[in-house]
Write a structure and sequence with these properties.
Layout: H1 2-13, H2 22-27, E1 34-37, E2 45-46, E3 55-57, E4 62-67, E5 73-78, E6 81-86, E7 92-97, E8 103-112, E9 117-133, H3 135-138, H4 147-152, E10 156-163, E11 178-183, E12 188-192, E13 196-198, H5 200-203, H6 208-221, E14 225-229, H7 243-246, H8 252-267, H9 270-290, H10 318-324, E15 334-338, H11 347-368, E16 376-379, H12 400-417, E17 423-426, H13 442-455, E18 474-480, E19 483-488, E20 492-494, E21 505-508, E22 514-516, E23 518-522, E24 536-543, E25 552-555, E26 565-567, E27 576-577, H14 598-641
Parallel strand pairs: 3-9, 9-14, 9-15, 10-14, 15-16, 16-17
Antiparallel strand pairs: 1-11, 2-4, 4-7, 5-6, 5-8, 8-9, 10-13, 11-12, 18-19, 19-24, 20-26, 21-22, 21-25, 23-24, 25-27
Length: 642
């Protein structure tokens, strides 16, 4: 219990690499970032997305933009093409070059004004992929299992890497700074905003999932690959969605979210905040002096007015404005998105909000990059906490993480079932570790690459090529004679090929009390030529002695779930369920004491439900042990008699 409490404190207090929680960010201001190149320079300049060593997107029109003196004529030349524009009154200009095929030969782009010529060298034409999400996408290759092997092998001069800086929020412009950005988590600066040639030296701090994904694409296709990491740790789905898009969502939970943020921003008083911090500073000085302790040399009297929640990175739309908006108009091949942890703190209402927002976020990103069917791969929420086991099965089911994964999978199915050719999905819950930054990132990147190589490149081929990435889906559910019978789109097996102990399902009756199930392949009673039962390996039968009349099932329903069911290519069956019961009322709604504050009431109810689940687990295990003893006792007595 203490270990679980400690882990919960860690999860709530530390969000990600490069990020501290909101209160810490207010209490400890970061060191100054070191700007090398401003977002918009003096005179003739281009957006900083256009640099020496970059990759530009093949087979799509190429938009190039920048700034010059008002009225100045600008000529852009690249790959045998030339286009001209005249700078507007606000200094902005843009040209568009025709689409061009992939080209592995380095080329130079020239941007010429009245008196200045810019030369961007060593540019390749290939595929550009956006990497989005939070810290598990940001997590560097140097920190993952087998990361050092990947690093020393990263000699790929035709792969180019760019990590975006965190930007200026709603003050951002159509460019970004190239800088050394301070990380409060790592207590060091990281170079952000520069296109680099992939090498063991440059890849070390790059996104592990993103690099592995891009490496596989390049090795299979031979096409130059550009990777742009836009991820920021500790961020939510709503911050990556444009404000104007969020405002149009017709969902109660999203409306409540936006109202709460607007109220908090309106209520914040910078002067009162400063006075409160000064009072805290003076109290600390008095306490130190009273104890006869020295005052730390770096302890300074607060004097700055802070922006408060208006500048919080999780303010709805903030990260989109910071990082994606400066890239709007750039043509790319697609995006891979891995996020979810920071949406796990608001219960069922927060998960409903996630589902309302996520699909609109994907559409908004496609609009930003000028492609209504832009390939977009969802990597679902990763694991955290102790693994679910047969002995500790029910308490881990009380977790918002499963609801977030469900929302991610449902969003995928919405697009996929509507015939969307670009949507992809990858589960990561079976890449199990107890930390909320599981270091098993290489397989996650390669799963995303399988999707791309099948659906976007056509390189992984075959009669059932989609089975390399597409999770099996449930096409029919029947309740028959105390069982739930599930029909799948494809044959399934266990991850270790044993076909014994298919794990991961729970079933419940109308009482909403779930129990782990026995899972068998279905047979209609027919036999083969060896007089053995014929099993239909795409049909599962779920039973439990504790649920005589089951009505619903759940699969992989925990933050770190016990599940081993995969398709014939090893792709996991995704987190999903047949019920719509909310977390806070399963198995039952808990009455809370009168006048208890809302947050305290939520914690009280959650604690009571977990106690009930722990008791139900214990009761089940006792009954299972008693049944096992009853079954084995005659065998033991017979053995003794012999």
């Amino acid at each position: 219990m203490f270990r679980q409490l400690l882990l919960s404190c860690v999860l709530l207090g530390v969000l990600c690499r490069g990020t501290v929680c909101a209160q810490q960010a207010q209490d400890k201001m970061p060191r100054e970032d070191v700007v090398q190149v401003p977002a918009i320079g003096q005179g003739l300049c281009v957006s900083n997305i256009f640099q020496t060593n970059m990759v530009v997107q093949r087979e799509k029109p190429l938009n190039i933009w920048g700034w010059a003196d008002p009225g100045e004529e600008v000529t852009v030349s690249f790959a045998g093409q030339q286009a001209k524009a005249q700078a507007a009154a606000d200094r902005s200009w843009q040209v568009t070059l025709d689409s061009m095929p992939a080209n592995t030969t380095p080329q130079t782009m020239t941007v010429k004004g009245t008196s200045t010529t810019l030369s961007l060298e060593n540019i390749l034409v290939g595929d550009v992929w956006i990497l989005g999400g939070q810290s598990n996408m940001e997590f560097p290759i140097s920190n993952v299992d087998d990361g050092e092997l990947e690093i020393v092998s990263a000699n790929f001069p035709q792969i180019r890497l760019l990590t975006m800086p965190q930007g200026k929020g709603f003050d951002s412009v159509k460019s970004f700074e190239r800088l050394h950005e301070w990380s409060s988590w790592s207590s060091r600066h990281f170079r952000k905003g520069d296109w680099d040639i992939c090498s063991p030296e440059t890849v070390r701090e790059f996104s592990a999932i993103g690099y592995v994904f891009g490496r596989r694409l390049f090795m299979a296709s031979g096409v130059p690959i550009g990777l742009i990491d836009t991820s920021i740790g500790g961020t939510t789905v709503e911050t990556w969605t444009p404000q104007e898009v969020l405002a149009k969502i017709d969902g109660e939970e999203t409306r409540d979210l936006l109202k709460d943020w607007n109220d908090r921003i309106a209520a914040f008083d910078p002067q009162a905040d400063l006075e409160s911090r000064i009072a805290s500073y003076e109290n600390r000085i008095k306490n130190l002096q009273a104890k006869g302790q020295p005052v730390p040399a770096d302890l300074e009297r607060p004097s700055d007015l802070r922006p408060g929640p208006a500048a919080d990175r999780n303010r709805p739309g903030y990260c989109y404005a910071s990082v994606i908006w400066p890239l709007e108009g750039l043509t790319v091949r697609g995006a891979v998105f891995h996020q979810g942890f920071n949406n796990c703190f608001n219960g069922s209402a927060g998960a409903r909000m996630y589902y309302q927002v996520f699909g609109t976020m994907i559409t908004a990103w496609r609009t930003a990059f000028s492609d209504a069917q832009m390939p977009f791969c969802i990597i679902s929420l990763c694991t955290a906490g102790e693994p679910q086991t047969r002995e500790n099965f029910l308490p881990p089911m009380y977790d918002v993480g499963a609801l977030i994964r469900e929302a991610q999978y449902k969003t995928f199915r919405d697009f996929y079932d509507a015939g969307d050719p670009g949507i992809g999905f990858v589960s990561s819950f079976d890449l199990r570790k107890s930390w909320y930054h599981p270091q098993i990132k290489v397989p996650a990147g390669e799963r995303a690459a399988k999707w791309a190589l099948v659906r976007q490149y056509g390189i992984l081929q075959g009669r059932d090529a989609d089975q390399y990435w597409l999770p099996p889906s449930i096409t029919d559910v029947k309740t028959v004679d105390g069982t739930i019978r599930l029909t799948m789109t494809t044959e399934i097996k266990t991850k270790d090929d044993s076909d014994i102990n298919l794990l991961g399902f729970a079933i419940a009756g109308q009482d909403r009390r779930f129990y782990p199930t026995d899972v068998q392949y279905y047979t209609d009673g027919s036999v083969d030529n060896r007089n053995q039962p014929k099993y239909q390996r795409n049909v599962l039968v779920l039973t439990s002695r504790f649920v005589p009349q089951p009505v619903h099932y759940r699969h992989a329903w925990a933050r770190n779930p016990m599940s081993n069911i995969v398709n014939t290519r090893g792709v996991p069956l995704a987190t999903q369920r047949s019920d719509d019961w909310i977390l806070e009322e399963t198995p039952e709604k808990i009455d809370t004491p009168e006048n208890m504050p809302e947050d305290a009431a939520k914690r009280f109810a959650a604690g009571q439900i977990r106690k009930k689940l722990e008791f139900a687990d214990l009761e089940r295990r006792i009954q299972e042990a008693e049944a096992t003893i009853a079954e084995l006792k005659p065998i033991l007595e017979k053995a003794k008699a012999q």
